[in-house]
Amino acid sequence: MSEQETRILLIEDQDDHATLIRALVEEGLRDALLTIDHAASGSEGLHLLESDEYEVCLLDYRLGDGVDGLDVLEAARAKGSATTFVVLTGEGDEAVAVQAMKAGARDYLRKEAISPESLRSTLRHALTIHREEALRKQAQEELQQAKDELEVRVHEVDEANAHLRKLGRLKDDFVGSISHELRTPIANLKLAQQLLVAHPDAQEKYLATMRRETERLHSLIEDLLNVARMSAEPPIPDPVTCDLNTLVLLYIADRTLLAEERGLSLTFTEEPGLPKVRADRRQLERVLGVLLTNALSYTPSGGQIRVSTHSQQLDGELWIGFSVKDTGLGITPEEQDRLFERFFRGRAALERGVPGTGMGLATAKEIVEQHGGRLEVSSEGEPGRGATFSVWLSTEDEVENRGRLSGMARRLRPKSSRETDPAA
Length: 424
Hints:
Layout: E1 6-11, H1 15-28, E2 34-39, H2 42-49, E3 56-60, H3 69-78, E4 84-89, H4 94-103, E5 107-110, H5 116-198, H6 203-232, E6 240-242, H7 244-253, H8 256-261, E7 265-269, E8 277-279, H9 281-298, E9 304-314, E10 317-326, H10 333-336, H11 347-352, H12 360-370, E11 374-379, E12 387-394, H13 396-412, H14 417-420
Parallel strand pairs: 1-2, 1-3, 3-4, 4-5, 7-9
Antiparallel strand pairs: 6-8, 9-10, 10-12, 11-12
């Protein structure tokens, strides 16, 4: 026998029989690293078998506690025991032994015929069967695990390929869309220039057209540059202390005239006494610009755009922010799920011919998340009910508090030998 430990359970209700069988087993397997445990009843044996530590169980068929060996064998198998069973029978119990074999026993021995040699042969055979089955089960489990891992890898590759195909389609759509968007203002500029030369008396009209188309070109080029910047490396915020009410007020003041030209009402409602935030002012203005431009673009003449600042307590932390609410076309639930994807343009953009690259909201969301904040959208998806975009940011005090806690954690952590040993 090898040096692998052999654990055997003997279930025998008669102590003298148990002592004799133990001695015969020890004699038959004297060259093995052997452990034999004895259970004096079927219930005790079942309890020990639950540990699944035994390779072989020598099971007496005729137990005296009202439970026979077949009951123990069937109960153990029902609980998933992997132990190999050898049934011990008395004279005239061969039919019972055959029945036990059908129930899952691997072998049987007649008690009056047991000897060290017969036990050695039977137990070696039972141990071989048990260990081969254990190896086969382990191999099956490892094979199944490998199969599961392979299926996961295949699924990941399929998802990656699908994502690449999606990016390819988005790129093609983007190139086609931006080519059209660039050609339109350029054509209008050329036409306005020609008309200006032909009709100098109407120069104010054509100069206004040229200013409008120039601004449109500028916006498109900025979007293209943003695509390049965000693809290469997201901009790192340069935070300063900001008064959100002042920032929003100054920004929308410059857009009031534009809103009036489009027949829209643009109002601002501030929540007084808002705490300061630590943020990159230019990037926050960029986010507000995206949200306000969208509201101006998708709200029909006669509509309203309301900008407001606000605060809320969430999970014990104070958050402040701003929202842009319009009475435009609204956003369907299906489009809300894709709204912040790069290059995605919704149905309203295509139907109204609103210029753009589909990068505005994606860029805005990335900027807000880089500030540790959240950008949320709410819309019933019905024309006239519009949409509300809300930006939430941590206050300056919360940011400083997290910084202090982080510094305390660094000071409280165990120091390394290099930190504590000046000579290190």
